[in-house]
Amino acid sequence: MRLYWLGVLLCWAVLGCAFAGGIDELAAARAQPAAKRIVALSWEAAENLLELGITPLAVADADDYRRWVAQPLLPAGALSAGSRLEPNLELLASLKPDLILSSPVLGALRPRLQAIAPVLTIDAFRQDEDHAQAAEAIFLQLGRVLGRQPQADTRLHQLAQGFAQLRQQLQAHGARRLPRVQVIRFANASSVYVYGSNAMPVLALRRLGLNTTGTPAASVWGISQQRVVDLAAWRDEVVLYQQPFAEAGRLFVSPLWQGMPFVRQQRLAAVAPAWSYGGVGSLYYLAQRMTAALLQLPLLADKPVAANRTSRRSST
Amino acid sequence: MEHVIAKPGQGAGAHAHLRWMLPALCLLAGLHLWLNGGMPPAGPWWQQQDIASLQFYYASLPRMVMALLAGAALGLSGSVLQQLSGNRLVSPMTLGISSGAWLGVVLAAVVLPDNPSLSSGWPALLGAMLALGLVLLLAGPRGLNGLPLVLAGMAVNLLLGGMATMLVLLHDQYASNLFVWGAGDLAQIDWQWAQWLWPRLLPAALLFWLAPRPLAMLSLGVAAARGRGLALGTILLLLLAALWLSAATVTAVGLIGFIGLLAPNLAQLLGARRPLAQLACSALLGAVCLLGSDCLALAIGHWAGSSLPSGAVTALLGGPLLLWLVRRSMNAAQHTAMLQIPGSQRQWRKRNYPLLLGALLGLGWLSIALAPGPDGWQWGWPDALLWSLRWPRSLVALSAGAGLALAGVLLQRLLRNPLASPDLLGLSAGSTLCMLLVAGWLGRPLQQDATMLALLGALLVLAGLLWLGRRHQYAPGMMALSGIALAAMLDAMLQTVLAKGTPDGLAVLAWLSGSSYRVTPAQAVWLSLTVLLLALAAQACQRVLTLLSLGDGLAQGRGLHLSAARLLLLLLVALLTAAVTSVLGPVAFLGLLAPHIASMLGARRAANQLVVAALLGAGLLLLADWLGRVVIYPRQLPLGMLASVLCGCYFMLLLGWQGVRRGGGQ
User: Residue B503: which of A106, A221, A226 has the nearest Cβ?
Assistant: First the structure.
């Protein structure tokens, strides 16, 4: 009897998982290409709209978007639609939008959102797929659904050119000599999140042509929690850390940190803040900032690595 | 040394345990160092410059020292608090210290985001001190060693914890990095925290030197202790020292709370009877427990390739240990060593009912008719779409409030413990855990199938509780401790998820703060019917309740089948809690406070208390839901959290008012 119920539970769970990522095609077919009043209930949806040249009517957590995602710029006219976890349904109902862009987090809310306007769900983050490719597919699909395919194509082309330029800059500065690159974000002075093989920063590095083998395995949100001490195991990686990091003043002067191989050999650089759960635009901004960080590393200077280190030693 | 109270043989048991505890501690310390990256390299430490020895001297060694210090301090603090209050369920956590520290840290992170505030420790310490000050102020000078202290602690805990969660939900981007500290993290990168902590633990010496005599006197009863000339100042000093120890520890290592509850209980069950033996044993056991669970955290971290917060493992390990010990050695005497529900001189009159009902109706009208919109405030009957969005929320708030209050009354009368509340049995935690596990393993968004999973989780926990409690005829003390252990274990899993730093954590937190946001009309109707049915059942049980509060002997004498009655009432409580949690998420403190408020208003007979508490609960949640929708429009606040803050404020007012009226005391 117990086994039977376990079986039922399992089947139920598997059925629930069968729905794949991307945009729901059926819902997309129902959306009107002329939709003008669009509400974005997630930041990647807002970002995609702005990249397509559409100003959303309202964005969930609009003020926080302006502070944390920043690029592309959200015009001041866009309202806040409540929080990303609990958008304000009453507000949405009185705004009377043409289309609502939702996220899988709001899956259970779908029927009630549909009572207000047609809903498109953008499902960008899954463990089993390449987020960069998914982001591109979603962007193109969205462009098609909203009747903005030319803009989508142009923007993707621009971004591809941008990536090519960044790649050239890196190669001109000796990126071929670079060993593996790891990207981290500090939780506090003793604990750190390491981006895994399906995380946006790692995918951006890969598109820059950098070596990212040895990054942690994929996970739904692409990060795994580690202790700062564990980073000592990285013997010859370049390490990039995302800013802001409030406790930098404490960690960076500690003897333990100073003893880390990548610190001693100056293979550590800070990346200016960029949103790491977004779409195609965010991927490029991430790449841009990481390139800037990498170009500051002495390793990337014109001189060969060994010569650089010996010259420093002889000067001291 | 004082030998008046202890019989000659009694101390020996504790000493025998001390003899094996010290070697165990050394063994664990070695294991800890080995797990944390190997043994020290040969040669004097100042000559070592390679990364392996840096790791040993700046990460492994301080981590071990911190585990020992923090564990001992929490164990000692818990022991003093439990002996002072005479309640085995009291710990630094229940007195609001952790909530205060958490609020301080969150507030600092929001107000000064670029300041390395956490590493200075001051926000946490100030928050903890604020909590401590409020508790002392509320308890009053004469309530320091008894129920007023405990109740004040609960109220402060409630208020500050609710405010902190609110801040986290409103400023998630700033706060998400704090979850690592919130889950209790022992990882070190230098000696800074160890050097910060040890001088602040010096009051421990004071406790060992000063505490045994007053505690021994208190164990004879408050009146007897007063008669022998026990001064208030002494109690206050002990209390301050104990709470300071936990405040400093929580500041340094984050929210590791279970040790303070577990170690003193373990010490007592291992045979430490005299106050001094209990203090020493608790401190040692605290160190052993924290070191042991940190070993496990390290081992799991190695195995899983991702670090695990130590606080979470503490509870995972401590929970079963507490359960096992309780099952093994709890005797009849300990079942009855519980507290009385507080009363007041007020009398509940029949003519108060229309007043209460009228207020409820007014609130209902307000919550449907008045709300802000994109063009400012609107007053009047809403259109069809808005109405369909509003009525399920209001109905759910009403029925959930009534349901939780009923469950609280039943449970407090059943367990004869005023700290008992539906979430004490671990039912809400079970629901949440079930959802988390499914979301984590299957990689699905958290909110799908929430209702079914929550119900399943609550029922699983109930089955476990019934199985565990069967041997003891569902005795009150047994059930309460089992419930705490289960809830702590389940909470540990939750903290782990939060500390992973993914956006899922925030979805979990939103669920945890009890939100009526996702309620569908069908769920609202289903919940209100269920609660109505169970409320009728509870009313039918009022004679049983009255008999049970007379005491086991009297109840049995009047022909009550004790274990059958307890089983019935437990089932009722579990069904009420499961129904509410499955729809709303855990709304923690309403079930604790509504019965108290009812009894403080004078409704002390079972029948009266049930009705008044249910009406109060319904009104409070309705108000909380409406406030949550309008206060920071267009964003919304979860009603569970607002209810916590409302309950906390109201409870504090009542406590303070009572204190003033009766010269501050019992």
Answer: A221
What's the half-sphere exposure (Cβ side, CA atoms, 13 Å) at B122? 6
Q: Is B499 close to A225, i.e. CB distance below 8 A?
A: yes
Q: What is the pTM of this model?
A: 0.77
DSSP E strands: which ranges in B261-389?
370-373, 376-379
B387 touches chain A (CB under 8 A): no
Query: Chain B 512-531, CB below 8 Å of chain A: which residues?
Result: 515, 517-518, 520
Residue of chain B whose Cα is closest to the Cα of A261: B51
Interface test with A, best of B54, B166, B313, B518 (most A CBs within 10 A): B54
Alpha helical stretches, state H, B140-211: 147-170, 172-175, 179-182, 192-200, 203-210
HEC states along B632-645?
CCCCCCCHHHHHHH
ipTM: 0.75
pLDDT, tens only, B306-329: 777 787 788 777 777 777 766 665
Task: Quick: pLDDT tens for B128-162.
Answer: 888 888 888 877 766 666 666 767 777 787 788 87
Q: Is B188 on the interface with A (CB under 8 A)?
A: yes
Backbone angles phi, psi at A5, to 5 degrees: -65, -35
Burial of residue B460, with CB atoms counted within 10 A of its CB: 0-12 exposed, 13-18 middle, 19 or more buried: middle
CA angle B134, B139, B145 (to 5 degrees): 125
Positive/negative CA dihedral, B113, B119, B125, B126: negative
B610-641 exposure pattern, b = at least 16 Cβ within 10 A, e = fewer: bbbbbbbbbbbbbbbbbbbbbeebbbbbbbbb
The shortest C-alpha distance from B454 to chain A (Å) reads 14
B263-295 residues labelled b (16+ CB within 10 A) or e (exposed)? bbbbbbbbbbbbbbbbbbbbbbbbbbbbbbbbb
Q: Which residue type, as a one-letter code, is found at position A160?
A: A
Minimal C-alpha gap between A167 and chain B (Å) = 30
Q: How far apart are CA B656 and CA B659, in angstroms?
A: 5
